């Protein structure tokens, strides 16, 4: 039980870090770029709230009675907001390029963490919950990695590589 609680706590921290990165990126952007980051931040807030609910139940010594893995996640692929113009706007802002890079790292770490937590969990409902979170974070990772790759060209075009 201690290992499970520790895994959920680590997940809570990662989700909160993601919320912070995405919401701050939304504040630095406008239009579809701001909307994209706001949507990601809200998704991570939902993950955080689900994990918090699980943590509270587990810390009281009871297994969570809801199957949160059954939630409809809407993992239907890449956001329609991601267009060449979107990538150009991301690539032209150092704040947004940095937010995407940080997001890539947070998402891949979340995938690793949730996969490991699922492997170490004996309860089928908790395993399904962690597997579902890992699947969703993996989609986020793939999306952000593609945005990072596609916006890189625009980023290099806007840099002058001069001393500060």
Can you walk through the features of this model?
The protein is built from five helices and no strands. With 164 residues, the protein is mainly alpha-helical. The protein has a single domain, classed as Ferritin (Up-down Bundle). The longest helix has 35 residues. It starts with a helix and ends in a 6-residue tail after the last helix.
Helix content: over 70%
Strand content: under 5%
Q: What is the total tally of β strands?
A: 0
CATH-derived topology: Ferritin
Q: Gap between N and C termini, in Å?
A: 51 Å
* Broad structural category: mainly alpha
The arrangement of helices and strands along the chain is: HHHHH
Radius of gyration, in Å, reads: 17 Å
Principal-axes shape call: elongated
CATH architecture: Up-down Bundle
Uncertain segments:
none
Topology:
Elements: H1 2-28, H2 31-59, H3 84-91, H4 94-120, H5 124-158
In summary, what is this structure?
This protein is an all-alpha fold and 164 residues long.
What structural keywords apply?
5 helices; mainly alpha; Ferritin; about 160 residues; elongated
């Amino acid at each position: 039980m201690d290992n499970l609680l520790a895994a959920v706590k680590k997940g809570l921290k990662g989700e909160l870090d993601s919320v912070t990165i995405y919401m701050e990126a939304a504040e630095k952007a406008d239009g579809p770029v701001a909307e994209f980051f706001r949507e990601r931040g809200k998704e991570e807030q939902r993950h955080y709230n689900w994990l918090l609910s699980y943590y509270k139940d587990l810390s009281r010594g009871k297994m969570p009675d809801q199957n949160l893995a059954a939630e409809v996640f809407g993992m239907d692929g890449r956001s329609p907001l991601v267009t060449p113009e979107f990538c150009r706007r991301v690539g032209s802002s150092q704040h947004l390029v940095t937010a995407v890079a940080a997001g890539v790292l947070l998402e891949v770490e979340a995938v690793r963490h949730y996969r490991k937590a699922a492997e170490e969990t004996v309860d089928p409902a908790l395993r399904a919950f962690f597997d579902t979170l890992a699947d969703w974070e993996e989609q986020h990772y793939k999306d952000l990695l593609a945005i990072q790759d596609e916006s890189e060209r625009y980023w290099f075009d806007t840099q002058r590589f001069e001393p500060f």
